[in-house]
Amino acid sequence: MNQVRIAELAWPTYAAKVKNGAAVLLPIGALEQHGPHMSMNPDVLLPTAISERVAAQVGALVAPAIAYGYKSQQKSGGGNHMPGTTSLDGLTVTSIIRDVLKELARHGVRKVVLVNGHYENSAFITEGVDLALRELRWDSIRDFRCIILSYWDFIDQKTIDQIYQGDFPGWAVEHGGVLETSLMLHLHADLVDMSQVRDHPPAAFPPYDFFPIRPEWTPESGCLSSASRASAEHGKLILAVCVQGITDALRTAFD
Ligand code: ZN
Ligand code: MN
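Above: inputs. Below: predicted complex with zinc ion.
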């Protein structure tokens, strides 16, 4: 039995770990198209894999991932018009985060790390944390602490240079590109088919959003940049950098 996955523990084991002060990592993803070459769940699988490795290092636990997220935006996720992409309203994301945090607090958990895997979730995660902390204060719980992070923010310039060789398109258009595809090739190769990668230049957008959406702004593949240079080797490196960076951050922030 994997000792970090909360869902796979019997409750007395879980309660004992919480009593010992274990932190909980909560991966937050999305069900979102990621191009013709990859499954629709990288935003769930990648923060989950990172969370499990970090938890093993620091003696923390991992809650089941939230498998749906906020609406895909055209300039960061291709857009919410794409088939398969299945999204929540912002209020729903916020409420899910708030409710899960309050339940963890009720169990006695006092340290939570919200590990985001889908760019569009960010502000709604922050709002859920803020509402949970406010409501916990009403119950006189004032020692509940949260870290909010997105895993790609831990990839340093040296790693970016090594992988992109000076051709880094920016995280905004990395949707379905080299970053996520490389990690998936390393962690879940069975969910990637590199023969289906469409090689096209990074998507170019005007400096504003337009609604209703103009589908023709999104590359036909649904990816915002090409994954053709993705590799399992890059994925292994990115994973190691993220796990180490997040592990160090937790030790610093919670100590
Ligand atoms: Zn993604
Ligand atoms: Mn996404």
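The mean pLDDT is 97.
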